[in-house]
Amino acid sequence: MPTECQIRPVAPEFALEVRGLEKLYGRAGSPRRKHALKGVDLEVPRGSIFALLGPNGAGKSTLINILAGMVNKTAGTAKIWGIDIDEDPRQARAAIGIVPQELNIDAFFSPRELLDLQAGMYGVPKSERRTDEILELVDLADKADAYTRSLSGGMRRRLLVAKAMVHNPPILVLDEPTAGVDIELRRKLWENVRELNRRGVTILLTTHYLEEAEELCDRIAIINHGEVIACDTKENLMRRLDAKTVTVTVAEALPENTASLPHALASFSVEITGPQTLVFAFRKSDGPIARILGAIASAGYHIQDISTDESDLEDIFLELTSDKQEAGRIHAA
Ligand SMILES: Nc1ncnc2c1ncn2[C@@H]1O[C@H](COP(=O)(O)OP(=O)(O)OP(=O)(O)O)[C@@H](O)[C@H]1O
């Protein structure tokens, strides 16, 4: 696996550093004109597993494609492993391995042949190739000489990770690594990603799966309409996602305001939203919902109906996009 001094004598604090990145597609006045990135700032600490979360069209691929040298930026700067992509594009790109979303692999080669071809493309001398080690790392050692067309979807995805690693980049970018992959394979891939990270590789991944970000990542940036609307540690961001509401319909008529509710409900964050409907806001980490149900019974009410609503990624998008100031605060934290 890569040693930091192979790429650069002094390892940078940030594996990726993006400042004021802008992308405008299409000519002015053209119907294809699109402001895809609107001054994106991003710092990915060396050694981290970093998630870039965002809905379709948010600008994730544009950002990754700029780093990969496949799309030209309109303005701003990007440094990969401390190397400015404008000043030394070759060295900058040597520091990054990109795992694309599509499973496009030449089916007539074996994994070993494919890795060798890739190593040749990057000019890695034969003596420095680590084909077996990389195949081992992604659990494909026993498939090294099999036809790629005989590999399952999960194996092909791991082979793409292996391909991105042949030139020993210290940064690996995975674009939606587990889209359409079943939960067992997803877990397997997460384990591979963790192992790479343990060996010192910084990981940036884009994902739609909140669970994936939660399971794997130290830091999460949320991107929407070409802007980073939140960027924080997983713990801080998850605290916002921890909120849950439970709506309870009771058999009895409720008072008109919460101040008149029985004392047993006084310690809860509760709203009266209908003649017989109460909505409790609580955090999953506060403990089981039974505490609320017990208090309702102690208050002398009989429950007729109950429903819960967990906040999800969509909620946090809505919350953050409707409260830019707050989002700014999070970003600065
Ligand atoms: N070549 C292009 N010409 C014009 N507009 C483009 C081009 N590529 C992307 N866009 C637009 O730029 C915006 C950002 O697209 P991008 O593909 O970066 O988003 P994304 O977050 O990666 O979405 P997805 O998850 O769907 O891949 C979208 O509105 C998209 O339609």
TrEMBL record:
ABC transporter domain: residues covered? 16-250
Molecular function per GO: ATP binding; ATP hydrolysis activity
* Name the UniProt record assigns to this protein: ABC transporter ATP-binding protein
Gene3D superfamilies to which the protein is assigned, alphabetical? P-loop containing nucleotide triphosphate hydrolases
The record's annotation in InterPro entries points to: AAA+_ATPase, ABC_transporter-like_ATP-bd, ABC_transporter-like_CS, ABC_transporter_ATP-binding, P-loop_NTPase
- Source organism's superkingdom? Bacteria
Q: Which UniProt keywords apply?
A: ATP-binding, Nucleotide-binding, Transport
Q: Residues of the signal sequence? A: none
